[in-house]
Amino acid sequence: MAIPSDQNTPIDMKRVVLELQGTPYSSAVGSNLEELDWMSAVNAWTSNSNSTVQPTDKYSLQDWRGYDHFAVSSFVNDKAVSKTTATSATHSINFVDTDDTFNFTGGTEWTISFWIKAGWSSSLNTNIHFIIGQKQNASYQLSDMIKILYHENTNRIEARYGNKTTSSDTWYKMGQWLFHSNSGAYAAGYQAAGLGSTYWSASNRGYANSDGYTMITITKSTTNSAAAMKLYWNANAAGAAPLQTNSGSGSPAMSSTNNRSWSLGSNGVSNGEIKCGNSSATLYNDLSIFQKELSASEVTELYNSGTAMDVTTHSAANKLKGYWKWEGNGNATTSNDDFSINGQSEIVNK
Asked: Where are the beta strands (DSSP E) in the chain?
């Protein structure tokens, strides 16, 4: 529309209406608004089928001129992904990394962080896998593997990585943190989680935000050892694992080129996508993976006082390799790898 570009030039509404009817604004004859039969003019308008649907709210042209059309939309965090308790690949949440983005090895520093709302009950009596990456089509779960899980029967979070190529060529590094003992090496986990002497479940979420979510973060340094991993519950440091296992020397090395399958909320493709919990679906929100061992202050920044932040604005965002917000789908905000959400697993209001 050829309306005046100079904000100080008055706009003749009759010319606007006549242009909508087909007469160019510059050649239309202006006059007083009282001369217009507005209802006839409006009814005679023909919409442009190429135009996008516009809001029905009415704003003045001055409002339109003053609007910042290049403003960045505000951060939205209304959704989460629900991992159903139903098992098998039919109900999985996964992707295959084919471009080596997440092919971390024993000597790689990394951080995996996610928000979780427990759905399992105190009668689970087994484990629930939170996230696992492993060699695509592997014969063994441990092949090029990184995983984080929770053992409900012992009230422990476990982080483990390693490799297995044959029944005898295998190694792994494992750390476990338990939360129900406030003594000795276990006290840090007890104090970080706030679960008391009762195990973690949907009926006892410990320290959680107002939506019932807890941010779980595992960091790892460049050292190939169980002691290299640390746990944070929200921004509360549980430190290095009080229970550590260093099995094998680190050979054969984890591959930096094999495709890896990543699954959320189950124990991976090679193990049938089971270990998903019980009772109610567990909800996950804002998963981020850094190729960096985040410091305690950087984890505190990520926790953001209990409100999920736009991780692309984090001070370590230059090391951010993957970021999934689950706002409507499993598409990645950072990385080329989109999660496929299958079967009864679904996007829900958080």
From this structure: 79-83, 93-97, 110-117, 127-135, 145-151, 156-164, 170-178, 214-220, 229-233, 236-240, 243-247, 260-264, 282-290, 320-324, 332-334, 340-341, 346-349
Do residues 171 and 55 share a domain?
no
> What DSSP line would sit under 18-31, residue for residue?
HHHHTS-GGGSPP-
Cα separation, 164 vs 170, in Å, equals 4
Residue 337 domain-assigned (yes or no)? yes
Neighbouring residues of 277: CB distance < 8 A, sequence distance ≥ 6:
83, 85, 119, 120, 124, 128, 265
Do 252 and 121 contact (CB within 8 A), yes or no?
Answer: no
At residue 67, does pLDDT exceed 80?
A: no
Mean pLDDT across 133-147: 95
Which two tokens mark 5? 């570009």
Is there a contact between 340 and 95 (Cβ–Cβ < 8 Å)?
yes
What is the pLDDT of the chain when averaged over all its residues?
89
Which ranges in 233-338 belong to alpha helices (H)?
296-303
Give me the residue label for tokens 């297995």: 164
50: containing domain:
13-66
The answer to whether residues 245 and 274 belong to one domain is: yes
C-alpha torsion sign, points 291, 297, 300, 301: negative
Query: Structure tokens of 111?
Result: 């951080």
Is 103 part of any domain?
A: yes
Of the pLDDT bands very low, low, confident and very high (cuts 50, 70, 90), residue 269 is confident
Q: What angle do CA 67, 70, 75 make, to 5 degrees?
A: 100
